[in-house]
From TrEMBL, chain A:
It comes from the Bacteria. The complex is composed of two ATP-binding proteins (PstB), two transmembrane proteins (PstC and PstA) and a solute-binding protein (PstS). One of its GO terms (molecular function) is phosphate ion binding. Residues 1-23 form the signal peptide. One of its GO terms (cellular component) is ATP-binding cassette (ABC) transporter complex. The keyword Transmembrane helix does not apply. Belongs to the PstS family. This is Phosphate-binding protein PstS. Coiled coil: none annotated. One of its GO terms (biological process) is phosphate ion transmembrane transport. Residues 24-305 form the PBP domain. The keyword Signal applies. The gene is pstS.
UniProtKB/TrEMBL annotation, chain B:
GO terms for cellular component: plasma membrane. The gene is pstC. The chain crosses the membrane at residues 41-64, 84-115, 127-151, 157-176, 183-203, 301-323. This is Phosphate transport system permease protein. Keywords: Cell inner membrane, Cell membrane, Membrane, Phosphate transport, Transmembrane, Transmembrane helix, Transport. GO terms for biological process: phosphate ion transport. PROSITE patterns: ABC_TM1. It holds the Pfam family BPD_transp_1. It comes from the Bacteria.
Amino acid sequence: MKFQSLIAAASIAAVGFATLSFAAEISGAGASFPYPVYAKWAEAYRKDAGVSLNYQSIGSGGGIKQIKARTVTFGASDAPLKGEELEKDGLIQFPMVMGGIVPVLNLEGVQPGQLVLDGPTLAKIFLGDIKTWDDAAIKALNAGVTLPSTAIAVVRRSDGSGTTFNFTDYLSKVSPDWKSKVGSATAVEWPVGLGAKGNEGVAANVAQTKGSIGYVEYAYAKQNKLTHAKMKNKDGKVVGPETKTFQAAAANADWSSVPGFGVILTDEPGADSWPITAATFILMHKKPQDPASAAEALKFFNWAYARGATLADDLDYIPMPEKVVGLVKKEWVQVVDANGKPVMPSASN
Amino acid sequence: MADVALNPSTAEPAAKAVDRASVLRGFRLGDLAFFNLTRGAALLVLVLLGGVIVALIAGALPALQTFGFGFVTSQSWNPVTEKFGALAPIYGTLVTSLIAMLIAVPVGLGIAIFLTELCPPVLRRPIGIAVELLAGIPSIIYGIWGLFVFAPFLQQTLQPFLISVFGNIPILSSVFAGPPYGIGVLTAGLILAIMVLPFITSISRDVFETVPPVLKEAAYGVGCTTWEVVRNVVIPYTRVGVIGGVMLGLGRALGETMAVTFVIGNAHKISASILQPGTTISATIANEFTEAVGDLYTSSLIALGLLLFVITFVVLAFARLMLLRLEKQQGK
């Protein structure tokens, strides 16, 4: 009896594997920040086009390694690769979706959006130079807000992350002190603060600790109803975190200035630009070993640009502006099969 | 079983002898196969262990070559400039485990003694099962509970209390220096204590139960108190087992990852105060490995793993040595 049921189980498993391997499938791996939106897109796309997408959210570093090793059709990274690195490995890179990074705080008597900060002040807080909420630098930006003398508890990411990369990149751009003492990377040597794992960890710690300040992706600030701060941008205008200001930053960026669209959307000019906006990138081989699945992947991205916007919006991700999408699609002709023919000739529709 | 083949009524004598020889050969072959299978299983452990060591050393080599001995003496952990030193995680690993053992060993032994010597039989099973259930809780649950329930509780109660009590005592005031964040080295140590408690308790209870009743009864007979029986009969008789349980707990405390990551604060810093954030080796690896870009960064994280391996090995070796010396002193 046991033996028979074993055989039955094995044959069911075999059939299962067989069907799995026959279905058209796109494989991707990398950044965890866009995982929720990629997963949602994949689900909708499978219903639409019958092609399934298997995305492993293993982190940007892992995604870069996987695409270089050609084990996946596309890799995903929050930090763009440099032009020469793309060249060396024969990769193309393009931005897929955006998010905003928002300073969040927990301070008695301060309402969401009430507190205004600028880059240099934010850098001083995260450097530990500003230690209390009633510091003169914060007061100067917030006439009319009563600020207690509570000590500032800095909360930051403990894990390497694209969020940290963009946040520290912004601080490096606006504060020479930050640039020389800390610098920017997916993980840095933080001068002060508590480390929490993931956006959800930072959100939870900020929600619990009185007098704390942290930074999270916009979606987490919104969904956890945390008190966000407004920021003074490069043009000296005070802006709040919202889709409009994130898109303004992307629209004002000079995308063709860096190969592979490797623009980091922090401290962009423009009256409406949110200063800490971040795009997340897709990496693909120019000469994929399996042109058919590369074509499927590009079809999926094409669909995501066209129809995925509302789904992204639901999750508080920001779709790429029209203008940028047009530029990206022009780059897709670089992905060719063994005969040098573009795998997706009609990419411009 | 061999007699079955020798049933006299079935075959002629000559055939019987052949039968018997072949059956016996079959048994010998079976035994040989069994011996080789079990030996293979045992060797597999050695191969796996060797493989892990080789992989760790190979992975850690770039970092060790770059930083040399400075890797274990430097506190700086800077992914931007690619300067890596492991002192802060090593310190955090040892201190959190120390705090955990300081709490879990007396409490665990206390529970085991109560369960075996003093507990009314009705309570024995429920308490024993409850302790074992503690061991079954996944570590991520301890982490979440620690972050959302335990840490805020400590921030409002124990930590302000410690700060105010020890505030004026010279050395202790810096060990318990504020501000109270809720999470930090002490919180991680306390969570670890809860996590290793069931290991120490169940193993101690099991070995305490092996003490022959006649020894205990004799001790009670000459007028010993319960404390004296435990101190002079039960503990000496079961010392090896108890230390084994403690070592198992210590091994878990040294390597525990998820629960610690949630509540330790993950700061690459050595603070005098145990209320401040710190980090451990396993927490650092878990936090940073996924997004570590660059060979030196990855290699440094693997080197941390190698260090944890070495620390665990040294601790266990030390425990063995201690046991050997104890046995020698007793003249066993």
